[in-house]
Design a protein that fits this description.
The complex is a heterodimer.
Chain A lengths: L2 H4 L6 H5 L4 E2 L10 H14 L9 H21 L6 E4 L2 H12 L8 E5 L4 H14 L2 E5 L12 H4 L4 E7 L11 H10 L3 E5 L11 H4 L3 E5 L10 E5 L17 E5 L2 E4 L13 H17 L1 H20 L5 E3 L10 E5 L5 H10 L2 E2 L1 E3 L4 H7 L4 E5 L6 H19 L1
Parallel strand pairs in A: 1-13, 3-4, 3-5, 5-6, 6-7
Antiparallel strand pairs in A: 2-8, 7-8, 9-10, 11-12, 12-15, 14-15
Chain B lengths: L13 H8 L12 E7 L4 E10 L2 E10 L2 H14 L2 E2 H5 L3 H8 L8 H15 L6
Antiparallel strand pairs in B: 1-2, 2-3, 3-4
Helix pairs in contact in B: 1-2, 2-5
Classes of the chains: A alpha/beta, B alpha+beta.
């Protein structure tokens, strides 16, 4: 293991405060290291001022830091600064993208989604489709948890106006062939929206590789604070997009009912942003890069291998999603026929083991896997081999508790 | 301190586990006069409570269900407590009193598991069964 990774756990105060905690729910939210906690509290305590609004030194310094954070995000995903809009998170970003693209949807149009979308990506379009008389088409998932790409030509046709795809599934761990899907969408003139919430903390991203119009991500799933996220909007689109939130910071001028909007990205950022959150997100990027993302990926891959092998050794286990290590993130879901997911998660929780059970905000997918819900284990930089051993022991203990 | 054994567990106490493992009152009811079904769509927990009500009395109560250990235990306790008693006993038992009956600490995330069976039983009282 990379020496830097070996000491990662010590960066996270929660593990010193709770030595018995086996945290396996990073897909829900990741823990925050000291370095980022300090960045946030230092700003709020010692340097706080609003951005883009004052001309005194503290205000200018805050603005500089905020815009530097934007530049960091841009560099991290291979975009231009003007393509980076700060939001309150992936859900916010996906809703913004949906609201700004809904105007191009008319009766009889098709919106293509995948069977493994999170509700935050799916439900805005469920409602738009219903309200505008459009049809929702779903790229199906096969028994290995991969998208059935052979259906693409049938689903993405000249009626298709928008394609929504998750880069990595929060239930199955599958990494989807986003570039291929975007290519098919572009060929028919459809807009593309990518949910990268589960992707960016595990795999390097260059938005030009995907070529998508919109990409959404969250700070709190990549060691950063909650309440901050990003919507990447491809430069060529911004002039045609009408912001759905207006107000402080979005306009250059207002004369009667005539508006002059500020240029992107600011025209999309109404109100005072979560400044400390943006700085925290930039610090999270620094942190990730200090771990060396390639080394991190290898570490997570090895742990995922141990996790899958371990789970497959359980009596009567059903594992969902890919059982190999190709094109996946460290998220694995499973179910046991004799233990309801809620009981298992509660009993594991009692042993200090944090996993998540239920439908994971993906009812269409999970109902087909198991109507009771599934148990999800997700790993991060601070996960260890011992965490996985404790999980497996914990599952045995849970079975003993219920059945003696 | 994390609880490794049921004796230490505030929720999965031996009493609850006994009900979950060997539930009381499971099955179909001949001569059902009242029945209702309930479910928690978020987790697939579902149950049907059937009663034979005579002279404002729940003479017999049976249930069928698919769900977690807590739901099974709740249904078992409902059967033990409210069968062979006046319907007033069930109707006058509040959610809090039922939780006290269970004798365990149910976290907010698991509340539905035990309350869905209770509300289903209450609904059954006012739902005549047409066979």
């Amino acid at each position: 293991m990379n020496p830097r990774l070996r000491q990662v756990k010590s960066d996270f105060p929660i593990f010193s405060a709770k030595p018995g905690l086996v945290y396996l729910d990073s897909a829900a939210t990741s823990q925050m290291p000291r370095q980022i906690l300090e960045t946030i509290s230092n700003f709020d305590a010692l340097e706080r001022a609003s951005v883009h609004r004052g001309v005194y030194p503290e205000a200018e310094a805050a603005t500089e830091r905020f815009e530097a954070a934007r530049a960091s995000v841009a560099l991290f995903i291979g975009a231009a600064s003007s393509e980076i809009v700060f939001t309150s998170g992936t859900t916010d970003s996906l809703h913004l993208a949906a609201q700004m693209t809904a105007a191009r949807i008319f009766e009889g149009d098709a919106i293509v989604v995948t069977a493994m979308e999170h509700h935050s990506a799916l439900v805005p379009w469920t409602v738009i489709a219903r309200e505008r008389g459009a049809v929702l088409r779903t790229i199906p998932v096969d028994h290995e948890g991969r998208l059935d790409m052979s259906t693409l030509p049938m689903l993405i046709d000249e009626r298709t106006k928008v394609v929504v795809v998750t880069a990595a599934s929060n239930v199955l761990g599958t990494v989807n062939p986003v570039s291929e899907i975007v290519r098919a969408a572009k060929a028919v003139g459809a807009a593309t929206i990518v949910d990268a919430a589960q992707y960016v903390s595990h795999l390097s991203l260059r938005v030009s590789d995907w070529g998508a119009d919109f990409v959404a991500l969250s700070g709190h799933k990549m060691y950063g604070p909650t309440g901050i996220g990003v919507l990447y909007i491809r430069q060529t689109l911004v002039d045609d997009l009408v912001p759905v939130r207006l107000g402080g910071g979005t306009i250059d001028d207002l004369q009667g009912t005539e508006l002059v909007l500020r240029p992107a990205p600011w025209k999309f950022e109404a109100g005072t942003p979560h400044i400390a959150g943006a700085l925290g997100l930039a610090a999270a990027i620094d942190y990730l890069q200090s771990l060396d993302m390639a080394a991190l990926a290898r570490h997570e891959e090895e742990l995922t291998r141990q996790l899958i092998v371990g789970l497959l050794s359980l009596d009567d286990v059903r594992l969902f999603g890919p059982t190999n290590l190709v094109d996946r993130v460290p998220v694995v879901s499973f179910a046991l026929p004799d233990v309801h997911p809620h009981d298992l998660a509660t009993l594991l929780g009692r042993q200090g083991i944090a996993v998540r059970a239920g439908h994971h905000c993906s009812l269409p997918l999970v109902r087909n896997l198991d109507p009771r819900g599934v148990v999800r284990v997700s790993l991060a930089a601070y996960s260890t081999e011992n965490d996985i051993a404790m999980l497996l022991e914990g599952i045995e203990n849970a079975r003993k508790t219920l059945y003696g | 301190m994390p609880a490794k054994h049921s004796m230490d567990d505030p929720l999965y106490r031996d009493a609850i586990l006994a009900h979950a493992r060997h539930p009381h009152g499971e099955g179909q009811l001949k001569g059902t006069t009242h029945s209702a079904s309930g479910a928690n769509p978020r987790c697939g927990d579902r149950c049907t409570v059937s009663m034979k009500i005579q002279d404002n009395r729940i003479a017999e109560l049976r249930w069928q269900g698919e769900g977690c250990a807590l739901m099974t235990a709740a249904l078992s306790i409902i059967s033990e407590r409210f069968a062979d008693s006046s319907i007033d006993v069930l109707q006058n038992t509040s959610d809090d009193e039922f939780l006290q009956l269970l004798g365990v600490t149910v976290s907010s995330g698991r509340l539905a598991c035990v309350i869905v069976p209770l509300t289903t039983a209450r609904t059954a009282v006012s739902s005549p069964y047409a066979s």
